[in-house]
Amino acid sequence: MLKKIPNSELQRYQISTISGNIYNELGDYDKALEFHNKAYEIVKSNDFENNQPNEGVCLNNIGNTYKEKKEYEKSIYYFKNALKDKKIKNDIELIALLYDNLGFSKLKMNEFSGLPNLFYESKKISDSLNFLTSSVSSRIHLSEYYQKIGKSNKALLYAKEANKISKDNDYYSGILISLQQLSIVDKLNASSYTDSYFKLNDSLQTLERNSRDRFARIELETDEILQQKDSLEKKNRNILNYFIGTIAVGGLLFFMRAQRAKSRELLLRQAQQRANEDIYRLIISQQNKLEEGRVLEKNRIAKELHDGVLGRLFGLRLNLDGLNHRNDEDAIHERIRCLEELKNIEQDLREISHELSREKYVLVNNFVAIVNNLLDEQAKINPAKLNAVIGENIDWDQLNNTTKINLYRILQESLQNINKYANAKIIKVEFRKDKKGNLVLNITDDGDGFEVDKKSKGIGLKNIVTRTHESNGIIEIKSAPGKGTRISITVPLEHKSIKN
User: Fold this and answer.
1) Given its phi and psi angles, is residue 74 left (phi above 0), alpha (psi -120 to 50 degrees) or beta?
2) In this structure, what are the phi and psi dihedrals at residue 387, rounded to the nearest 5 degrees?
3) Average pLDDT, stretch 73-102?
């Protein structure tokens, strides 16, 4: 039947090659070698005049099957012969694959001649052609090579590059391989990479099993495939549509998840903004109430001075005028009584003066009162010793309300972090004015601490940094495991920028 079909030998070659690749994917390497060798015999017996390196392709497929069987000595032999095909220059992608396959087989044989240049050449060609599979594979193999010779930094670098390229191009097989390699070369984060690997692998297993089951049920004998050509093309179209549909659904789910994350972030920002506005309104309300109380207190004191003290003084003055012309014993007793009354008036005036001083202190330090309330709450919920120092030379009226809100929130967030994670015994909070006229907030604890450079920044720490920048301030965080933590915030009092 094949003899009646035009280019039947070319079709036999193509079908044999496809069959060998499918059996190779299914792990039936002996059957794969049978079909690849059949394809190679067809190529050697015919000149298809298509200017393609058909022999090189066949030899690469045979070598790749031996590579999968871990018979690296044989795979090296076939890869080298494939590179000798005169038509190989017409297929640059095949050259990239052969360099990478040959280098990998040598690496597995601990034969380092030509390494790592073979991988670099493959990477260079693949990157120039945007040949994704080979580009990722060459980087993975470079990572394995540098791991083997003890250069862990380079091994980690190329593994990360492979992972990034795979993620950028939604190349899931590459993501899996790179995560597996990262878990080997990056011991500190091995568990994280392993978790990501299993999550992605589970999501792809169903699709892979379905595809594998379909391919496993196909009888790949040449004559039978030709007779069922139309049916096979229809099945292939269905598989392609299924795969495209799966990718589309996966992309849609990813997009929906990203949108939900953005929505949550927006809601959080809105909630944070509302909280800031509420605090601002509370501070304004408190200031208005204090001002109202100040006016009422002034009126009360003025009334007391007018109706009480001034009236009593007027009466004493009249009595003393009348006693100026008398020297009898009753006049002496009356003068003594007037002196006692003057002492009482003096004490009343002193108390009024003290009340006025306390009123001014409360008016000036309403922000300090809010901070002290927060510190009192902290002392109730955490057994750690809390030392608070608030400089007396700070003019809080110079500090705008937005900065006050941000400093309050920064202090609140820092104390919450200490309560959750620090296990501290001593906490120190200090507000002071530096020599340049800036306001400095220092929050120190003697707790567990952390590595600042390696610690992933949670939303709390990010908010502290953001609030500092919103106040035109600078932040410095010092910490180390077992040595506690110190957060230092510097903001301008009356100027728009920090005085350096």
Assistant:
1) alpha
2) -110, 125
3) 88
